[in-house]
Amino acid sequence: MKPALRNPWTYIAFVVPTLLLYSLFFVYPVIVSFIYGLYRWDGVSAKAFIGIDNFTRLLDDATFLKSLGNNIYFMAFSLIVNIPLVFLISIAISKVRRMRGFYKSAVFIPVVISTATVAILFGVLYDYDSGLFNQALRAVGGESWAREWLSNPHLAMLSILIANAWQNIGFFIVLCLAAILNIPKEIGEAAKIDGVDGWNETRFVTLPLVRPILFVMLLLTVSGTLKVLDIVQIMTNGGPFQSTEVMSTYMLKVGFRSMELGYGSAIGVAMFIITMAMTGILHRISRTEEVHF
Amino acid sequence: MDRMLQTNASARTGTTGGGSGLNGRIRRGQLPMHLLLWAYVIVTLFPLVWLLLSSFKTNREITVNTWAPPSRINFSNYKAAWESAHIGSYAVNSLYVTLAACLLTLLLSSATAFALSRMRYKGLSKNIFAFILIGLIVPPSAVFIPLYQLVTDLHLMNTLRSLILVYCTYALPITIFILHAFMQSIPRELEEAGIMDGLGAAGLFARIILPVTVPALVTVFILAFIGNWNEYIFSQLFVTTESLRTLPTGMATFNDGYRTNFSSLSAAVIISILPVLAVYMFLQRQIIDGMTAGSVKG
Predict the structure, then answer these.
(1) pTM
(2) Segment B45-76, tens digit of pLDDT
(3) Which of A19, A114, A183 would best serve as a mutation to test chain B binding (most B beta carbons within 10 A)?
(4) What is the CATH T-level fold of the domain A62-285, as seen in this structure?
(5) For A89, which of A279, B63, B99, B250 is 20 to 30 Å away at the CA?
(6) B293: burial class by Cβ within 10 Å (0-12, 13-18, 19+)?
(7) From A4, A181, A252, residue closest to B199, measured CB to CB
(8) B115 and B252 both lie in a single domain
(9) B38 and B101 share a domain?
(10) Where does the record place the ABC transmembrane type-1 domain (chain A) (predicted)?
(11) Could you give the CA distance from residue A163 to residue A241 in angstroms, rounded to a whole number?
(12) Per-residue DSSP letters for A127-186?
């Protein structure tokens, strides 16, 4: 009997279409991206090979460095503000007995809304004359408290970060909650019998046991904030005065507005390398972290 | 991956037990938690409620009576938004692109995951699988420029087909990854009955493995659907014809044109999120599980 699961024609028919599509729209552009990065090219005239000049230029490009700095700011804010809030809310949800499903569903609502819509929504909320933020501030402290949220270079980035947090925190809460609820409840009960109170249980029992999910959240935050694009492009498109420029918005401007396709590709490659390096380091650290119940 | 799916599963069941003697003490201690959570939920949902109220007001009312409910419920903002923003046609484009890309993704990736996880070409399959998983670590933003050139060269610029093909391609790695893990866990005995009945590999796939994989297919379908439905940047790069825009890019364009007309803008945003929220009401659990299943992608 011919083994049914060794049929080369079926295998080819099942695998090759996927590989063709994947190679054409993913692998090929990735390779080309690295090649374009070595050329000066405006998309019309002939390409000029310039070696790694595009990459050395990155190191002197104040706007690129500013963009990278903004990505790091984005990352730092998400790590310092969002993640503790995620832990706080998910621990609270895990401690309550009633309405757990309601809380989980409610905090997840912003996650299903598209980033484009969230950006527009916050554009309305941040409006100087009638936006929610300024109207609330005026109600508390009078006219002088109103701010130009998106057109003030010192506030624009913060405004985007708040909108981004509003959209993303629910996703992390659900991940973190799942990890907390996955801890066998015998552990919590044992702690209670030993007289451990709620705070100490959280501090010494729950938090150490959900470390793996902390690493997942760190990875998602690092890779997500390095490639952030939609929300910045729609809310400010990098302005005012490049105060919110991030690597991806800068790359699109260089590539499609200034038509420097080679330099734009080099920025894309740089983003790729920076992301790989940072997530690689995190992976290395997290590999030593295993939790056994 | 397995760990993720497990944790999701256990989040669903939750924990409701506990000693009855402890109950009273625990419940008393829960009030601060509920207050904290209610505060958080209100802060989270208030912008949406505020937007809903604004969508029934005139622009003047929004500025002057910010905190008051609308003086009367009138749908003129909705009418204006619907007519000037072409939300209807954007939604149709989005639905077409999203569904076509999802179905193509499911078709290709279920077949590929089957071949790689269950057919007897172990060495080759392992290499192909590793090759496909590279797609999980490269951020798409790194390839915008070459991809734009490619779409132009293939004469796909300004077509919805470009989006279908690109969305499908970028969903393949994570989908294959999830389906591969699932199919690998299916016991061999299930296939043996089929082999006895004389089924070939394709028959085993369609008649035995695929029906068992339905729960995982639902998960990846939702993951791909939400991703495609909300996708903004490819759509903005590849489609510039007004009538072909998808909902996110259409909304962004409308936003640029109506930045100061908040009543219309509010109505447009409400129209664009209502269908999503309606679907979410009914499929909360599946949507939450589907979307978080993709979190290994980081």
Answers:
(1) 0.87
(2) 999 998 898 888 888 887 777 777 887 777 88
(3) A114
(4) MetI-like fold (1.10.3720)
(5) A279
(6) buried
(7) A4
(8) yes
(9) no
(10) 68-282
(11) 20
(12) -TTT-HHHHHHHHHH-GGG---TTTSTTTHHHHHHHHHHHHHHHHHHHHHHHHHHTS-HH
